[in-house]
Amino acid sequence: MNSFDLSLFNFLHASADRWFLLDWLATLFAVYAGYVMVAFFLVTIIKERDRKKRAYAFAWWALAAIVSRGIITQAIHFFYARPRPDAALGIDSVFDYVGVSSFPSGHLALYATLVAPMWYLNRKRGTIYAVVVGLMGIARVYGAAHWPSDVLAGIALALAVTYGIKRLLLGKEKIGQKGEKEA
């Protein structure tokens, strides 16, 4: 852990276990928001009329999620076991979680892969997803499940993999080209 991690962690975690509503919101975003994001993404895909666009968005997300969370994050966790803040500092976590290694955040490595494909399908929802991913990251730090650098690394990994998968699937075609209708 470095001074950036410790300073930002202390700032975000300072209010933990003091206000029930704040702890509840942190748990909502850190633990449950991802499930809602996936559900709305799947509904958006089902409602998309263009079959090619629907198939592309799903393949884009599925491949990015598998590579980002299922392969790269797991490999990093296997070779680099960084303790979580609650274990490193001897404090209580706001919510329960599974896993020992902290770096990078598996939650963010998974759920941040939804942002670009959702933006491709619907810009407004894509923007909302970006905000929710940010709040999820803050909540994971607030709840003592991650250091700030874990969250940033998880998001950066997801964005890099998502971009790489996009390039692999479509080459140089841009996301959300003008002329595409928004759902």
CATH class: Mainly Alpha
Order of helices and strands: HHHHHHHH
- Ranges where pLDDT stays below 50 over 5 or more residues in a row are none
Query: Any idea what the shape is?
Result: globular
Average predicted confidence as pLDDT: 85
- Indicate the percent of residues in helices: over 70%
The total of helices stands at 8
State the major sheet: none
Structural class designation:
mainly alpha
CATH homologous group name: Phosphatidic acid phosphatase type 2/haloperoxidase
The CATH level-2 architecture is identified as Up-down Bundle
Distance between the first and last residues' Cα: 43 Å
Total strands: the figure is 0
From the 3D structure, determine the CATH topology.
Answer: Vanadium-containing Chloroperoxidase, domain 1
Q: Output the radius of gyration.
A: 17 Å
Question: How many structural domains in the coordinates?
Answer: 1
* Percent of sequence in beta strands: under 5%
Mind explaining what this structure looks like?
This protein is an all-alpha fold and 183 residues long. The protein has a single domain, classed as Phosphatidic acid phosphatase type 2/haloperoxidase (Vanadium-containing Chloroperoxidase, domain 1), CATH 1.20.144. Helix content is 70%, strand content 0%. Helix 2 packs antiparallel against helix 7 and helix 6 packs antiparallel against helix 7. The termini are far apart. The mean pLDDT is 85.
Pick out its properties:
183 residues; Vanadium-containing Chloroperoxidase, domain 1; mainly alpha
